[in-house]
Amino acid sequence: MDNTLLLDLQAVRKAFPKPDGGELLVLDGIDLRLREGEIVGLLGRSGSGKSTLLRLIAGLSVPAAGSISYLGRAVTEPPPGIAMVFQSFALFPWLTVLENVELGLEALGLPREEIRRRSLDAIDLIGLDGFESAYPRELSGGMRQRVGFARALVVHPNILLMDEPFSALDVLTAETLRTDFLELWSEGQLPIKGVILVTHNIEEAVLMCDRILVFGSNPGRILNEIKVDLPQPRDRLDPGFRDVVERIYVEMTARPAAERAGARAERFPGAGIGTILPRLSSNLLSGLLEAVAAAPYDGEADLPVIAASLHMEIDHLFPAAETLQMLRFAEVAGGDIRLTPEGRRYAQLQTDERKRLFAQHLLTYVALAAHIRRVLDERPSHRAPWSRFSDELEDHMSPEAAEQTLRAVISWGRYAEAFAYDAHTQMFSLENP
Amino acid sequence: MTYPIPPVSVEKSQRALTLLDLVAVLLVLGALVFLAEASHGLAQPLPEPGVSPITLDPAALPGYAARTTLRMLAAMGLSLLFTFTYATWAAKSRRAEFVLIPLLDILQSVPILGFISVTVVFFMSLAPGRMLGAEFAAVFAIFTSQAWNMAFSFYQSLRTVPEELGEAARSFRLSPWMRFWRLEVPFAMPALVWNMMMSMSGGWFFVVASEAISVGDTTVTLPGIGSYIALAIEHRDLGAIGWAISTMFVVILIYDQLLFRPLVAWADRFRFEQEMGVTPPGSWVLTALRRSRLVVRATAPFGAAWRWSYRLSTRAGNQGVMGGRQGRRGRRVDRIWHAAVVAVAALALWKIAQFVLAGVPLAEAGRAFLLGLATMTRVIVLIAIASAIWVPIGVWIGLRPNAARVVQPVAQFMAAFPANLLFPLAVSAIVAFRLDPDVWLSPLMILGTQWYILFNVIAGASTIPSELRDIGTNLRVRGWLWWRRIALPAVFPFYLTGAITASGGSWNASIVAEIASWGQNRLQAHGLGAYIAEATQAGDFHRVVLGIAVMSAFVVVINRTFWRPLYARAERKFRLG
User: Fold this and answer.
1) Which of A138, A412, B245, B459 is deepest in the core (most CB within 10 A)?
2) Which of B165, B274, B320 is opposite residue A137, by nearest beta carbon?
3) Residue A390: which domain range?
């Protein structure tokens, strides 16, 4: 393997300014190297800053500190030689397939004939023959993403950046596209020398990558690096493959030894008032509880197994499992989820009793819910505006996270009938019509 | 460019080729001849005072119509130029935005008709003794009625370019010039075309009003439909007015078929929603132009030139990254900038007050305010009446797709038709029946603007999902309950859009509607519109400026305190989906 260093990131840090003058740290202490011939995966749940990192590498924004260099030169603007494939395809709907592919070459100011020739070659390579004059709106998702790939490859980049390129596609289409891409890559038919893939799909990362960087949240940082030495093409059922997947699950469910200094809002399991809560419906939580409680798991399940059987990706599965843990309905560790006695009891109960048990746990273990309830109980009117709590939360987190957290606790509070909320007046209350 | 298919091929396609080519060539040549004919006479000297260049001979009408239409086109071209520069500047520069956008917002609500007199004097002084000066003034008047909402829509589109498309453009290193034409303009196009149509509708009203203006002693008459009508009114010639109205119908119909249908059909490909939409709008003109190989061949050099400009622009260098947040220094410059803007605004206010007070006593402002209240009462009552009539009708039509397909274009057509052409008919009736002008002149204000309510309500009602209607039927929701729970909430945001447009238009129309004449008979209602019109005729600029200022204040305050909050609430509460 050639060992030319394509990309070198050192101690990269990214923060966004907050309205109050402070700053919100989204990435901290990122070291990353990409060598020729490598596919490196950035794996993490949403909010771990992996897409932000990809945009830094693409030169679409600038880091607050640290250095990013591509072939020895600092990246300060989108460099020639780095192309990107987007999750939402980002095709220009008013251009045909051919025109979309030609766009990057026109921007290079190449002669007309060369643009046409290279575009047709790329279209040919990626399997879009016959679709040249179609508009994106006429194509299926899979075909649109192929255009996205052709458009990126036609400029003959050294590095291809892929931002969850398959996550907007259905399972089968995604699999086909992955396989096609890997085939072209291992046959050396692609003009690219290295790939960085952002994903939240663990199996996808293990299928495609030579190295996987596991990201943690708040602030986004690299928790661990996992090498995948399996030969291509890889088989999901291969024990070696399952081992790597299991290892990543264990890695991602490991409790951090000690919360890092400077982390403003811990996520779990302390569940203090500064905890960012995920927006998950009570139906999803109940569904997961029931699934784990039922045969064949009987209250204890391997996360990769349950993820596969429920078709849940880590973006949903981890927050759900951790919310159950926060509510003391389950414990998550070592890549497993195990129900507590209360969790098992919950799964057996009828609707009304479930709500009571849920309310009890919500008000005991989720500090924010308890806080809202206490404020409403203390006020003579038993009412409080949204801003009363959002202001408080924004001391600990970004406004978006504060809104998400409040919406989550409202939804759980409504289910538990612990308090009510009127979206028009933006008031919390104890009324329960 | 190379052509994959040689021009001479199988017989069948050759036949289609000649027919469509013929149509296309006729369209193109016709446009050229029209331009040449209509622009003839621009450089003519002004006619002697007292000699009217207009004749009431119906045979002269096509020529007048052509002149009127050309003014519209020129103004539209200016408006587009303004849109592309002003709005782009506002969208790209934070500091410019701070001034330009509120300015645009105010300009949108200023009664343009009141301006005409001021601008006529200015432009006449630019080209003294020539028709060109008066033409400029007319074109400028139309421009002021068209440009603001177009610029606003373009600015809003620029600000809402989807982030991932912007990122794609930057990551593929598109030059700013290329980004503008490849990403921003196409993205803005559907909204811009829609606003061009709205502007055009409004423009007809002003072109008619701006062709025959008298400011003090100076009377300017430009050959056109507007001055034809003015002359017909002077001569009390109902027949001539009938001719003018039918000519206008034909002109607007041609405009619709030759310009806007093709534009709308063409802009459809720029819709950002990627779903296969409902039947895309079609246009026989566009189809003919597109299928004709001659046109394709003739336009190819333009395409090539355009691409060449892209290549040039890429050589000129790429834009860097979006700069990080400005530091403390940037903030200080901001503060200085804001202070400068405030200072200039204060100076302008001082100047205006000085100018107005030099000519009129302070008490006059109180009188203008009272007259403003009178006009406001008219506008409110008229909007209420029009709503009561058109909302139920609009809902009824909107729920019947077949009826909507027929009525929708008719309503849009009615909105485009300059209602001031119909004023003489109404005025002659009021004179004949000796009616009270304070009451009976009022409906003229809403004659042209009520259609906005109708076609917006139709559009709203046709978006009610069939599931919602089915569940209504299923639960036997009927009568008033059905209106209250299903129909009215569903059309409310759409109704508001229409009502806001109608209300703004009515204020503007009051300047021509509150004072009207029929030969020697002069009818006048008490209102701010009549006040401005009267001051214009008297050449009293102090009062004109005062009237405009008061009317702008009324419109801005009503928009900010009534329409906007209502609209924001409706958006939040009633928007489907």
Assistant:
1) A412
2) B274
3) 282-429
In this structure, are A236 and A359 located in the same domain? no
Quick one: pLDDT at residue B21? 61
Residue B194: domain span: 41-271
Nearest to B320 among A55, A58, A76 (CB): A76
- Domain containing residue B537: CATH number: 1.10.3720.10
Q: Report percent pLDDT > 70 for chain A.
A: 94
Q: Tell whether B207 is covered by a domain.
A: yes
The dihedral sign for the CA sequence B149, B150, B153, B155: negative
Do β-strands A383-385 and A427-429 pair in parallel, antiparallel, or remain unpaired?
antiparallel
* DSSP states of A349-387: S-HHHHHHHHHHHHHHH-HHHHHHHHHHHHSTT-EEEHH
* Same-domain pairing of B251 and B366: no
With CA atoms as reference, the chain B residue closest to A87 would be: B164
Task: List, for residues A193-238, the tens digit of each pLDDT value.
Answer: 999 999 988 888 999 999 999 988 778 888 888 898 888 888 888 8
Does A58 contact B172 at a Cβ distance shorter than 8 Å? no
Phi, psi of B61 (to 5 degrees): -60, -45
Q: What is the pLDDT of residues B66-124, one digit of tens each?
A: 888 888 888 999 999 999 999 898 888 877 887 787 777 777 767 776 667 667 777 77
Would residue A269 count as lying in a domain? no
Residue at B19 is within a domain:
no
Ramachandran sector of residue B123 (left: φ over 0; alpha: ψ -120 to 50; beta: rest): alpha
Hey, is the C-beta of B276 within 8 angstroms of any chain A C-beta?
Answer: yes
| CA–CA min distance A139, chain B (Å) | 9
Instruction: Give yes or no: residues B552 and B420 share one domain.
Output: yes
- Position B328 scores a pLDDT of 56
Residue type, position A391, single letter: D
How distant is the Cα of A87 from the closest Cα of chain B, in angstroms? 9
Domain annotation covers residue A212: yes
Contact B311 A59 (CB under 8 A): no
Straight-line distance from the first to the last Cα atom of chain B, in angstroms, rounded to the nearest whole number: 46
Of B183, B275, B304, the CB nearest to A137: B275
- Whether residues B539 and B435 share a domain: the answer is yes
Last residue of one domain, picked from the residues A233, A253, A273: A253
Rounded CA-CA distance A43/A52 in Å is 13
Q: Which residues of B touch A90 (CB under 8 A)?
A: 162, 164-165, 167-168
Boundary residue ending a domain (B222, B243, B271): B271
Round to whole Å and give the CA distance between A159 and A153: 10
Is the CB of B174 less than 8 angstroms away from the CB of A94?
no
Domain assignment of residue A244, yes or no: yes
Asked if the model's pLDDT at residue B9 lies above 60, the reply is no
pLDDT score of B319? 47
Alpha carbons A379 and A399: distance in angstroms, whole number = 26
Task: Measure in Å the smallest separation between the Cα of A153 and chain B Cα atoms.
Answer: 11
- Region B123-127: what's the mean pLDDT? 72
Q: Is position B389 within any domain?
A: yes
Q: What is the ipTM of this complex?
A: 0.77
Answer whether B528's CB lies under 8 Å from B371's CB.
yes
Q: What is the pLDDT of residue B41?
A: 55
Q: Would B280 be classed as within a structural domain? A: no
Q: How many domains does chain B have?
A: 2
Contact B324 A137 (CB under 8 A): no
Q: What's the pLDDT tens digit per position in B183-193? A: 999 988 888 88
The pLDDT, as a whole number, for residue A258 is 40
Neighbours of A300 (CB within 10 A): 13
Within this chain, do residues A169 and A119 fall inside the same structural domain, yes or no?
Answer: yes
The domain tally of chain A equals 2
The model's pLDDT over A147-203, given as tens digits with 9 standing for 90+, comes to 999 999 998 999 999 998 998 888 888 889 999 999 999 888 888 899 999 998 888
| A266 in any annotated domain | no
Please give, rounded to a whole number of angstroms, the shortest distance from the CA of A260 to a CA of chain B.
Answer: 28
The more confidently predicted of residues B508 and A178 is A178
Give chain A positions within 8 Å (CB) of B315: 109
Q: Any idea what the Cα angle at residue B227 is, between residues B222 and B229, rounded to 5°?
A: 165
